[in-house]
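Lab notebook, bench 4. The sequencing result for the construct came back, and we need a structural model before the next group meeting so we can plan mutations. Quick request posted to the team channel:

Model the 3D structure of this chain.
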Amino acid sequence: MSGTTTAGSGSSRTASGPWRNWAGNVTSRPVREVSPASAEELAEAVRRAAEDGLRVKTVGTGHSFTSIAATDGVLIRPDLLTGIRRIDRETMTVTVESGTSLKRLNVALAREGLSLTNMGDIMEQTVAGATSTGTHGTGRDSASIAAQIRALELVTADGRLLTCSEKENPEVFAAARIGLGALGVVTAITFAVEPVFLLTAREEPMSFDRVTSDFDALHAENEHFEFYWFPHTDNCSTKRNNRSAGPAAPPGRISGWVEDELLSNGIFQLACSLGRAVPPVVPALARVSSRALSARTYTDIPYKVFTSPRRVRFVEMEYALPREAAVAALREVKAMVERSPLKVSFPVEVRTAPADDIALSTASGRETAYIAVHLYKGTPHRAYFTAVERIMTAHGGRPHWGKLHTRDAAYFSEVYPRFAEFTALRDRLDPERLFANDHLRRVLGD
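Done. Here's the predicted structure in token form:
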């Protein structure tokens, strides 16, 4: 094929058109796309890009809402870097290629009788994309996916393959688990795993006042607690996930389809489309949809409880706050929506995480609660997100690295005590800014 060269079983080709992210709000036009089939081929692609004076970015499934993966240089697609390299049952770890999807990893681990300890609520992302941007679920004691990393391998700007862990290159390991694509291209990740276990999920409607009043107790009493508040109502949907001795009792095929597909995707899609076309109907739709989800309890293996299908496309902003500030901030968001002309069709999501030790983790050094706001794809979002962001930054919030925000390096240097540690490491590993783009220049400085 014209414009394509093959090295080993990977390929390099002139980009045939623009790249777009999952939400469709980011577009970029790379000069060339590369699909390496091994770490060695990836290293060669990085060296060649440097020789040609082109910047390099890697993209997974495009689930970030920011332009963190956008480039006008070389776009690396890790589609061929997939699969499990090895499972070590002595150390209870799994090493996986960077382009492997979380779904494929979860299914493969379950087949081996193993599981990650915690995970986010979708699993379409690649393992490298998810960890590099700090993807997380909710947990009292168990943290983000990146916090479960025990070692990782990356190609640095000079084309070297660098392995890091707590014992090997520990200063790189401290930062690269959530590296934003700024320190190198991740080629493999080693995760801690444990024997597969059962979780019982208890989903229950609850009033806004009760959830916020009891938030500390609900967090303390449950291994994984989260809730959704439906704007324009006083209604919330709560979810408590706790380990169970079993037996497994998954949702019935029909009732599960009704909750997860018909209500949460099909009818919700229609409601969002109608709300975008006729904004005044949004509050009435919110009242109906918030009452449609009923209480249910089910027990299954972790990834089937933690994750759910997300077919309705949206844009999102999420801020990590000190956990003790979450309720006050959420009440401010509710008051702001009620006194404004805004019509918000998507529920607001609240989750938690324990403190961790990763330099640019949103939970670095502090107990954390997350408040996430969404709007249906194509709905003007700036007024809503700006108003919410003003509240979050007043509480010292840290925005999720893969979600929309307007913060810059000056702000991050104030809210991340170890920000200078990360940028100094970046200076050492990528002094020529081979892995830079406009977005990283804004959030990390130049």
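Residues 415 and 427 are 20 Å apart (CA to CA).
Will bring this to the meeting.
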